[in-house]
Amino acid sequence: MNKLIKNTTAMYFILASVVVKNLTVLFKVTGLNYTAKRLKANTMATNLDAQTGTFGVMSPTTTIVKGYVTAGNLIASQRADAILLVASLTKQEKDNAALIVKTIRDNWLGTIKTKAAGSIPLINGVGADVKGQGTPPDKTRFGKTWPEPIAVDQNVPMHLELELIGNDVLSKGKPYGAVSIGCYRQIGGAAPLRNNHPSAEMIPGFSKMNYKDTFITGQEGKVAYYIFFWLDKDGKKGPESPVFPYTITS
């Protein structure tokens, strides 16, 4: 019985020491976002530094790869700062436009009405409008503009919220004739092109000037692509917007 145990133990150590040749060694990054990829690379470089007796000096060196990781971390930091800056500037521009409109409405219109003494040409001549006498709705905007993001919120992992505005920035609302907003959406894959997006899906139209999206497990780190356009009451499309890409946060 003891002899059998010894032979079994010896066989175990023989099998454990066998080196399997023709292995395919991988650096798996599927499903990892940019941060996780850099962390994995840095960990591998550190592990190789600790085992130079076995693996020798890598080419390019682990120092070079760690330098790539450091550069990536700096880029990520700069990108985060840029997103915050754009969001801040966008809000400042929005608040500034609101201030201009409020100032004119609250302070100038009364004076213009009084001084014009009922003369519509005088009122129109300074750029003001008269209720019921304004310019007719501009039907051309529908065929010349598209919705585009003015602000993005990705603070909640696996979620995206976009605030939209017409690309001509004449107003926050939809142009005359547009009853809703259409969107082509694609997750991952080769980036679609404006007016050429066979892999993108068309999502149901929505009426408000914002868009919310929720992603599923396995999509983190991928790029979500969006193309927006106006839709009229008959479902006719306006021009497509450029492609707007956003990396899905985890």
Walk me through the topology:
Layout: H1 2-16, H2 34-49, H3 52-55, H4 62-116, H5 120-125, H6 140-144, E1 147-153, E2 159-166, E3 180-187, E4 201-206, E5 210-214, E6 223-231, E7 244-247
Helix pairs in contact: 2-4
Task: Give your account of this protein's structure.
With 250 residues, the protein is an alpha+beta fold. The protein has six helices and seven strands. Helix 2 packs antiparallel against helix 4 (62-116). It is elongated and about 100 Å long.
- Beta content comes to 15-25%
Radius of gyration: 30 Å
Query: Would you count the extended β strands for me?
Result: 7
Large-scale geometry: elongated
Low-confidence stretches: 9-16
Order of helices and strands: HHHHHHEEEEEEE
Strand order of the largest sheet: 4-3-6-7
Average predicted confidence as pLDDT = 89
Question: How far do the termini sit from each other?
Answer: 56 Å
What structural category do the secondary elements indicate? alpha+beta
DSSP summary: helix tally:
6
Helical residue percent?
40-55%
Q: Quick one: biggest sheet?
A: 4 strands, antiparallel
In short:
It contains 6 helices and 7 strands.
Descriptive terms for the model:
alpha+beta, three-stranded antiparallel beta sheet, 250 residues
